[in-house]
Amino acid sequence: MVDVLSQNEIDALLAALNSGEMDAEDLKKEEVTKKVRVYDFKRAVRFSKDHIRSLTRIHENFARYLTTYFSAQLRTFVQISVVQVEQLPYDEFIRSIPKMTILNIFEAEPLEGRMVMEVHPNIAYAMLDRMLGGQGVAPSKINNLTEIETIIMEKIFSRTFESLQEAWKTIIDISPRLEALETNPQFMQIVSPNETIALISLSTKIGETTGMINLCIPHVVIEPVMPRLSAHHWFVSQKKERIPEEVEMLEQRVSKAKLPIVAELGESSITIQEFLGLNVGDVISLSKPVGEGLHIKVGDKLKFIGSPGSVKDRLAIQLDEVVNEGAGEEYDE
Length: 333
What we know:
Distance between the termini: 74 Å
Number of strands: 10
CATH class of the largest domain: Alpha Beta
CATH superfamily of the largest domain: CheC-like
Largest sheet: 6 strands, antiparallel
Strand content: 25-35%
Number of helices: 11
Radius of gyration: 35 Å
CATH topology of the largest domain: Chemotaxis protein chec
Shape: elongated
CATH architecture of the largest domain: 3-Layer(aba) Sandwich
Structural class: alpha+beta
Order of helices and strands: HHHEHEEHHHEEEHHHEHEEE
Oligomer: single chain
Mean pLDDT: 81
Number of domains: 2
Strand order of the largest sheet: 1-5-6-3-2-4
């Protein structure tokens, strides 16, 4: 923050310059010295503030998708939100997580390299307890996973990568795939200790149990798509062109849509008393002359003018004229 001088300090500074106690050149040197910033090469800054904001937006969507997924799977109250997105060395991330935790190591083609989704044991065991019919309470003592528990955990978390794929779709189409599930951070070395990572921390609450889900994304993995994380790409990106397969599928679905078609013989207005007095054989006069074409509506829009008839003992109507868009007013009286 820039210091604001008071009037007395300004007067003292001018007096010192006039008396020769302070030289203007010395003052300039002090200003140059203040502009020097300390840079720690062990904590290289690879992600700009713009990148951090974009990662935050992406994983806020990811948190919403996860909330929906876990709420449906666990059938209980689940709340997940992004707490922080920061960059730090990989070694610092490893030292910050518990010695016993759930580490989902995954790849996301076409990106090259591995990433990690670390789930706090409290959250992971609460999910496991809920899936096995419990109340979703984490045990007081965390033990190693059995083979059955490991398989259940893998099934739970492998489905979360579908949410990650959906969240990243605005940047790149990825195919996340679970590679391994570890419980000891010391056995996991996906990048060098000094490699900068983006750490996305998600606050998670399942019932009464709270904990963190941390997503570790090495800079070297997402470096090819870093330009797409800029605000320019988010707000000025070109419209995505549909691939031919998508267009064909859309045309097939639209062609199967059913639309109501109504041929109106005419209209008439009668009173309630006349309506109550109708009997078999009574004739109601319509407003349309016999020789005038019938209005054929698709939905509620006038599209054709036609003539009534029959085909193979079935009522039918022949299309005589196509009504162009906006031309229906001349037929309305």
